[in-house]
Amino acid sequence: MSNFLDQIFAQLRRSAARIVLQELHSGHIVSVTGAELLGQVRTARAFARRLGLQPGDRCALLGANSIRWVALDLAFMAEGAVVVPLYARQAPAELAAMVKDASPRLLLCADVQAGRAVVAGLADGLSVTGFDEVFAAETGSPGAGRVDETPGPLQDSSLVTIIYTSGTSGDSKGVCLNVANVTHMIGCTTERLNQLIGAASRPDQVFHYLPFNFAGSWILLLSCLARESVLALSTDLARLAEEIPRAAPDYFLNVPTLLERVRRGVEEKVAKQNAVIRWLYARAASAWAHGRAASGRALDGWWLLLGRVLIFRTIRARFGPNLRAIICGSAPLAPETQEFFLMLGIPVLQVYGLTETTAICTMDDPRRPPEPGCVGPAVSGTEMRVGENEEILVRGPHIFPGYWKRPEETARVFLDGWFRTGDQGEVNAGGNWRITGRIKNLIVLNSGHNVAPEPIEEKVLQLLPGAQQSVLVGNGRGYLCMLVTGAVGESAVQTVLDSLNPGLPHYRQVRGFLVIPEPFTSESGLLTANGKLRRDAIYARFAREIEALYEKTRMESEPK
Q: pTM for this one?
């Protein structure tokens, strides 16, 4: 039975004359056919052989998404090496810690100077090689012509990558994934994408901007290479608004942050339009909500039709003429945002998973309307159940074999053969899963009440335009307070809390808050590379302010 690399190489040979990968640049597009990509892979494999690379050797890749990055990834996996992808925008000290942990044979960099900065403090003198050096003799590399266009023999248990987790606690771990893990997952994604696209008469058009060092991003890359696809890679995050319609994708992978930003941007723009447009948008949105609640009213269909023709169609056009769905992962998407895109006629298919589960456990079925607030049913071959403390437990052929050089931590995340995700969730009668929180994020008040912060934080962000992040605090204290970042006024925050608190039990009510004008960033060490809160770092950075906040709320609550 063929593995995922066999499938990809066979697909590239079938696509010898067809474009398979593109880089979108401001003034031009760089493209490669299947044959041209295989040529770059041969050049990189010849380089690996001249280097004397052996199966099982680690090779770190540091660079933004590019055609050359893809060629190097395929080449080194085909030679039996273990690829360690690194995030080009991560802090050098964090990258150095990952490189030291993985102890790769070499570090391949798009920017050699950046690579040398990473290894400067390491004692082992790791070799740093630029992408340019590998491909310098691309047209006539010695030995390249003798490299077979098929991957070397790989066992199901052979490691192909070590992907370092984002490290919300500040401690990144190397997640090992093997051939069997990835082969199974590519089968799952192919099944879902076939359901989405159906019997298409042309290759899938796919746009991509998320870094390949994230498991979900990498799995999408491999899925596209294994299918009849044209994958267009963004090279400038500041140009997404123009790149997406230029790529005219059938689908693309997204994160909730961007979708929330699109929704807020549309609502703010509508608010600045003339009274007629504002009124029509409100009527059309109300008509959509009535229909979703099965409480339709006279003329709802008319208002919705007008909204689609005069407003929604223009918004949808920003994503190009071919869009069938947006795939969203990395964190739960606010139900209101998913409803917003459904109203525009754009299904948002949610995906849930972890690096340890080869990126995916659940995925919305494109043949069924997505259920806002849920992340879809389990993919083929995946078993899921709820354990103690509502923790989601998973098992299947996509579960990783362990953390790199951390047997004790590997043992801690398994329970009788089930992987402990650390996420809390529930499943409904239709088989759709909902993620309700993260166990390690639970706030335990001194009353003994446990509070999952995520639902309250997400609700505040939904109700508070301009807010970038909200962080609930109160572990070991008598009540909850909140940090809010962004361009928001204190009166606006108080108004939101006044509307939210009455519907919550007393121990989940937020009694004080602090506005922090500057949003948290990964550069400041307060967010992970993919935008998740580093709660311990936030608590430590703002310890003095949090203490003052509690003192202030205590004094305000005391009888005068």
A: 0.86
